[in-house]
Structure formats: C-alpha cells, structure tokens
Amino acid sequence: MRKFTLISVVLLVLTSCVGRKQIEKQLHSGDYDLAISNALKKLENNKDKKRKQSYVMMLQDAYYKVVDEDHTNLNHLTKDGNPELYETIYNTYLDLDSRQNAIKRVLPLQISGQNLELNFNDYSDEIINYKTKVSEYKYTQAKQLMTTDNKFYNRDAYELLQSIEAINPNYKNVRELLNEAHFNGTDFVLVTVQNQTRQILPQRLEADLLNFDTYGLNQFWTAYHANQDHTIDYDYAMELQLQRINISPEHITERQLLRQKDIIDGWEYALDNNGNVVKDSLGNDVKQDKIINIKARFFEVNQLKSTQVIAKVVYTDLKQNQIIDNFLIDSEFIFENTFGTVKGDRRALNTEDLQLLKNQLVHFPSNEQMVYDTGEDLKYKLKDIITRYSFRG
C-alpha cells in the first residue's frame, strides 16, 4: 500500500510539472488564450491549494498580456477606419468579453492569501456598435451584389446575408432578401422524358422518373422541375431520351439430377458367411443397422425473363440554346425464379434441393411490369448523373 501511495504521489507531481511547463511554453510563445484555457482547467478543482498558486499567477499573466495585445490591435484597426475590418473588431470585442466571462466562473482566486483582482471591462456597447456596423456593411454589399443577374454574385450575397442573420437575427429585411438571393442564385432545370422507343411506356414509369422528391437530391443551388412554371426563366433543360427497350422471351429451362444416398432403415440381424445369425459373447443375437440405397430424380426448373432500357440524358443550355453534355444509360431488370420437383424418395435429396421444393411455378411478369421494374435501376443511374453533374464547374 505504501509503495502504491508513493507511486501515486510521484505521478501526480510529474503530471503537475508537465501542465505547468506546457502553460509556460504557451505564455512564452504568445499563445495566451490557450494558456488561459489550460490554466482554467487546472483550477476547476482544488483551486485554493498551494500547488495551484502557479496556475493562478500564469492565468493572471496570460490575461493581462492578451488583453493588452487585443487593445493594441483594436487601436490600430479603429484608426484605420476600413469597413472591411469591422468584423475583425467585432470578433475581438467578443473575444475580450467571452475571455473574462470564462475567468469569472472560477473566481474568487487567491495569490499569497490575497484575492486576485483582475481588471474587467464592460464591452457591451462596443459589441452592439460593431455588430450594427458589420451588419450594415454586409447588408450594403449584399444589396449591391443582388443588383446583377449574375448567379455567383447572388450566391455570394446569400452568404453575406446568412452571416448577418447569424449575429443579428431578423436585421432589417434580411430574411426576405435571403429568399430573393437564393432564388436569383439558383439554376433552374426543366426536366422532360422523351419516348423514342416506339413502344408504349407504363404511365407509372414516366411519373416515377419525373418525381424528383423520391431522388433524395440535396442540391441547394439547383432546382429540377418536371412541371414547367411559366413564371420562371429556366437556365437549363435535362431531357431523358428513352431510345430502346429490349424484352427477352419467357424462358423455362429444366435439368434433371439423379440423387442417391445410403441411409439407415431400421435394423437387421448380423449374419456370418454361412448365413447364420452372429452371436455375441453372451450368446445373444447381434443386431446391426439396416443400410439401404435410396434414389430420386430431382428436376430443377428455372424461369427467366429480362428487360433492358437504353437511354440518353441530354443537358441543354437554354440561354445559349445549345447542347452542353450527354450521358448514356443502360439499365436492366432480370426476373428469375427457380423451383424443384421430385420423383422418387425425397430422403435422397440434399439441403439445397429441399429448399427449392418449397418454391413453385409463378406467373411471368407482364412486359409492362418488367419495363416498370427496370425503372428503379434507371432512376438510380439517373440520380448518379444528376448528383455528379455540375452546371457551373
């Protein structure tokens, strides 16, 4: 127990030394906020212990140095008068305020029996003042960007307005402008399906292909419309051209397999070479397993039908009235059903055979259903193209 206690004390001392040295290093390198953060962690528990005095002193040192540094920077920044620097000034005041609030949570602290007195300031006026300046400056920038039809400018405006909303919720008409900037920055794509196959498409298939709610798309700056909105000036068109549909005949194939197996079928008396019943040492008749060979003919039947849909996705720039890209899609759906029948002793079958016996002949899907089922793979590949494609690089 004594040895264990000694080891614990040594580890505690080593840990304490490592913590002090780290904070001292941070102080010397000018990483004052990290030094403050680490000192505060050390003072969360037993802050009045003598061994914690060094952390209090380092906290005080780091605090005054970083505050002096911030005030010096603020003096230069405010004299510069550049509106681009408003946000830096605002964030510096926020840092000053949050830093002293973090320290307040561990007060009171003592150095050599005396309460630590740190100079704290009320920065609320400065924070409010520069929050307004930042908001107004970004608001003016955003409004200027939104005077153009440039999509990227409107997207930049949206980012500016979002940053205003984050620090100054519901400032002026920012929320209204956010909607406007988003609309103006969005690429609107009109989507159509063109049937070039000379075959009748299932109505459900076309409806599903155009139901973009089921695609799970998450493209903030691109909107796909299957139904044209005549109030929108569309930027691009995406046409899904169904070019060919191949449907195979209904195939039924059968293969016959001979199964045989030796099994125990009751018992019989053991006979010697002369045909007499064998006796054991006590004179009793000896019995043995009766082995018989069983056979069965297993018929494995396979139903197969497949559909192939070949399509092309064509992107058109409606402003320039020219095709800008196209992608081929080859989708397939396979219907397959396998079942089995048996003639003979079922006990000769293996596990897989027995499983197939549970299946049975089913009706082949109609051509319409097969084409519709191919649509799932078609949608998956179409979604992949849409997700990877970028209109503006």
Would you give an account of this structure?
By secondary structure, the protein is of the alpha/beta class. It has three domains: 12-121, no CATH class; 129-185; 195-265 and 295-393, no CATH class. The chain is built from ten helices and eight strands. Strands 3, 4, 5, 6, 7 and 8 form a six-stranded mixed β-sheet that branches. A hairpin with a 2-residue loop joins strand 1 (110-111) and strand 2. Helix 3 runs antiparallel to helix 4 and helix 8 runs parallel beside helix 10. The two termini are 69 Å apart.
Describe what is shown at a glance.
The protein is an alpha/beta fold and 393 residues long. The protein has helices at residues 2-28, 32-42, 53-80, 86-104, 124-145, 151-167, 174-185, 203-209, 351-357, 367-388; strands spanning 110-111, 114-115, 187-195, 222-225, 236-247, 251-269, 287-317, 322-344. It folds into three domains: 12-121, no CATH class; 129-185; 195-265 and 295-393, no CATH class.
